[in-house]
Write the structure tokens for this entry.
Amino acid sequence: MAIAKPQPRKETTPTIDMDERIRLRAYRLFELRGREDGHDLDDWVAAETEILGRPVKLANLRVVK
């Protein structure tokens, strides 16, 4: 009977790490504003811009209902 070799542990992908960083920054912006509702997209775009270092065009976003 052959002994199975342990599979190397997969690291998280950079995309997941980046999304998590953006999510945490957007939440921090929400907290800094005093947890005022209605600015989630603004916070997300601002966080994305800060972390990715480039502006994000709002025209490329779509609203999901």
